[in-house]
Design brief:
Helix content: 25-40%
Largest sheet: 6 strands, mixed
Structural class: alpha+beta
Number of helices: 11
Strand content: 15-25%
Order of helices and strands: EEEEEEEHHEHEHHHEHHEEEEEEHHEEEH
């Protein structure tokens, strides 16, 4: 059966079968690769036997959990004569597509009815227009609406009322001609040449796109989960935001010193270490939220946002406060590589107590990130920059200096981390980052 390979998985995609029908399978052998809502995971066999029938082919998408995907028989049995059991659960997409269609009933009576119904143009009235029409007994079907998406507006109703008054107005003199009523074709000429339809047009495969059409792009499982979690986060978590500028001159100097010894450390590695040390100093921030309230966590696990073709994933550096900067750098590089290849294991991306998202390498000076529930905080990192500042020497003489600065923004769950606690966290984080020697880096 299609297994649940992550806590939030509802359906999966069969990427590749690693065994073929008729092959012997032992316990622990890799059967197939399944794309979950987080990564591509290998499904291992839990039984010995022969792979008798593949029920869901490679490339099949949105296979519901519990659906039958393959049949195993015991060794020695005739696997070619395997009996396919009747499924009581929801069928997989391939079964739905391959199911024979029943012959369609005659459609002549239905088409006549449809033509009769569609012959009457549906008119959408604004509330003000409806009131005017009902009060004066006017029929809107003789006038072409001028509102967006074919809405009959208040102005349309007033124009009809003026036309009615003009037609019924008595002559004051014998020579005064009666103003003829304005025909619907004249009213239609006042509308735009391309009135907006009541519903947007849909593109037709194989034909050129017409103006105003759109193309529907199917969302992957990961994109769908990201969309749900973003919506959940922004609608259920009271986000608070606070920013602070950090001087990273010492971090850049230490990076150059380490590079001389062929040790390549990124600024983001220092940020992860500084955040972990700050969380150790302030355990109240290292918390998650549940229905019962805040849960303070004993381990400091930093989730690092990594952009992939399938969407944003957050592999986790476990126990980051106890690791050296070089070990953190090695772990982040390995996790990022696996994330982009879709090979992360569930334990490598599930959980985490604090998240970091860095867009500085894309030239972003500062931004606010969305909290990853049930975590209480996420730290957004901007691009480093040089600021011109005035400083004084020991004798009080002012001078202009360039400083390497960076803006970080903390998004915090107001139910767990209030504004005062968030401000204290940012101040301690700034002090730790500006003095990298106090981080016990190695």
């Amino acid at each position: 059966m299609m297994p649940a390979l992550s806590p939030t998985m509802e359906k999966g995609n069969i990427v590749k079968w690693l065994k073929r029908e008729g092959e012997t399978v032992n316990v622990g052998d890799a059967l197939c690769e399944i794309e979950t809502d987080k990564a591509v995971v290998t499904l291992d066999s839990s039984d010995d036997g022969v792979l008798a029938k593949i029920m869901v082919e490679e490339g099949t998408k949105d296979v519901i959990l519990g659906s039958l995907i393959a049949l195993l028989v015991a060794e020695g049995e005739d696997w070619k004569q395997v009996e396919i059991p009747v499924q009581t659960g929801p069928p997989s997409p391939t079964q739905t597509v391959s199911a024979p269609k029943e012959p369609a009933a005659p459609q002549a009576p239905v088409s006549i009815k449809v033509q009769h119904l569609t012959s009457k143009r549906e008119i959408r009235l604004s509330p003000a227009a409806r009131q005017i029409l009902e009060t004066h007994g006017l029929d809107p079907s003789s006038t072409v609406p001028t509102g967006p998406r074919g809405i009959f507006t208040k102005e349309d109703a007033l124009n009809m009322l003026k036309q009615k008054d003009t037609v019924t107005l008595p002559r004051t003199t014998a020579s005064a001609p009666v103003q003829p009523p304005v025909k619907s074709t004249q009213a239609a000429s006042s509308t735009p040449g391309y009135p907006r339809p009541s519903s947007p047009p849909i593109s037709i495969p194989g034909q050129a796109l017409a103006p105003g059409t759109f193309t529907e792009i199917p969302a992957s499982n990961i994109r769908q989960v990201i969309a749900r979690r973003l919506t959940e986060s922004k609608t259920t978590i009271p986000h608070s935001y606070a920013s602070i500028d950090c001087n990273i001159e010492q971090v850049l100097k230490m990076r150059k010193q380490l590079a001389k010894d062929d040790i390549k450390i990124s600024v983001n590695d220092f940020i992860i270490k500084a955040a972990a040390v700050t969380l150790k100093q302030m355990p109240d921030v290292n918390s998650t939220w549940s229905n019962e309230g805040p849960h303070q966590l004993s381990s400091i696990d930093i989730a690092v946002a990594v952009a992939t073709e399938r969407g944003l994933v957050t592999p986790i550096v476990r126990e980051a406060a106890t690791k050296g900067i070089e070990e953190i750098s090695t772990m982040v590089k390995a996790l990022a590589k696996k994330a982009k290849a879709g090979k992360l294991l569930p334990e490598e991306y599930q959980g985490g107590s604090f998240s970091i998202s860095n867009l500085g390498m894309f030239g972003i000076s500062g931004f606010s990130a969305v909290i990853n529930p049930p975590q209480a905080c996420i730290l957004a990192i901007g691009q480093s920059r040089q600021d011109l500042t005035v400083s004084e020497d020991d004798k009080g003489n002012p001078s202009l200096n360039l400083k390497d600065m960076m803006t970080v923004t903390l998004s915090s769950d107001g139910r767990v981390v209030d504004d005062e606690l968030a401000s204290q966290f940012l101040e301690n984080f700034r002090l730790n980052l500006e003095n990298p020697k106090r981080l016990a880096l190695f």
